[in-house]
Amino acid sequence: MREFVAAGLYLSGSLRVLQSISRDYEVSNIPGRRFPRVGRVTGSKYVILCYHRVASGGFPFISSVTPQAFEAQMRFLRERYRIVSLEDLCLELKKPAASGQAVAVTFDDGYRDLYNSAFAILKRYRIPATIFLIANSMETGQVAWYDRIFLATHVYPGKTLALELDKPREFELTSPRSRQLAATHIVATLRRLPDERRRECCAALERIVELPAEELAERMLTWDQVREMQQEGIAFGSHTVTHPVVSRLEATAAEEELRESKQILELRLGKPVKDFAYPFGQPADCGSDVEDLLRHCGYRSAVTTSRGINSPSSDPYRLLRVQIGEERSLAMFAFRLNQLFLSSAEHDPRTNVAARPAPRGTSGESVEHSISS
Distance between the two ends of the chain, CA-based, in angstroms? Predict the structure, then answer.
């Protein structure tokens, strides 16, 4: 029903009217009030978009958008909104001078299809995107641990898989859907465990399942590709060394992940790396004392995957991001973006939890909520 409404608004031109309204007015949901409050917009607003892959299916089995849909979205943004780099966004939050609505584009993990498919589109529409890289994946060429779990459940020859995670668990693997759902549950469970135990579980799974080398090869960006993209205006940030859940790390290990990833990227790129993306990025994943470590390591910002818009009052180490690029239609993408700008910038990033749709054909906990970012 919502997609039908979005299509009608988009095709009739009404969405342009709503976008114009959102520049001047915003809607706030007040606890205890039956109806939302409508007020005047008093400052600038920023939406940070989060993408992962720009590809048509295939491994890794993580969120993706087709190149055709991605190009339509970038064209729409260029025509309708002010697009800013993450660097400019941070500057404007610190010293607000600009007003109105702005959008920043980011990618997590550093999959190779960003070079093969997204790069040309970003250049065509002059999009100053930021890509957050996993340092160890860049150095070794290996996909991150959660991708390996999805591949393991995909290729495992049996119909059931027994694992010792937080407790003994058994997963049904009787269909592609059940295999994806099993991987989702495994990753979601491991996110809640201490990082050392998470590593042990991953190693145990790979002793049970032999991962096909051809599926693991040439999935991540290379340093040469990154440097070429950098020369064309694409920026790069840190996504840790090994993509752990930061809140599950001891303080020393957390600092190592933040500091070493920054050092590796700066050595390879030849310029400062100042922006960070929390792995997974939900409030429970980020920890309560990481901001001091980020400052100590020399970062100026950190992005989450908590849903919402940013304003000059936002904490630069808890910036909100949204993943709306996988919408089935450009109309729905435009509708959801306008919804965001219509909402009030009053928020508490520590309690803001993203609401994302599950992948088509699955049920239960969504893949995005379990593994993305």
Answer: 29
pLDDT of residue 369: 46
Strands 275-277 and 301-303: parallel
Confidence of residue 136 (pLDDT cuts 50, 70, 90): very high
3 state SS of 280? coil
Please name the helix (run of DSSP H) or strand (run of DSSP E) that holds residue 38, with its range, or none: strand 37-40
pTM of the model: 0.91
CA distances from 29 to 320, 340, 349 (A): 18, 13, 16
Q: For 241-261, b where at least 16 C-beta lie within 10 A, e where not — what string?
A: bbbbbbbbbeeebbbebbbbb
Task: Say which residue the tokens 């089995």 belong to.
Answer: 61
Q: What is the CA radius of gyration of the chain?
A: 20
237 - beta bridge partners?
Answer: 132
Q: Where are the alpha helices (DSSP H) in 57-167?
A: 67-80, 86-94, 113, 119-124, 135-140, 145-155
State the Cα–Cα distance between residues 171 and 162, nearest whole angstrom.
6
pLDDT digits (tens, 9 = 90+) for 341-363: 998 875 443 333 333 333 333 33
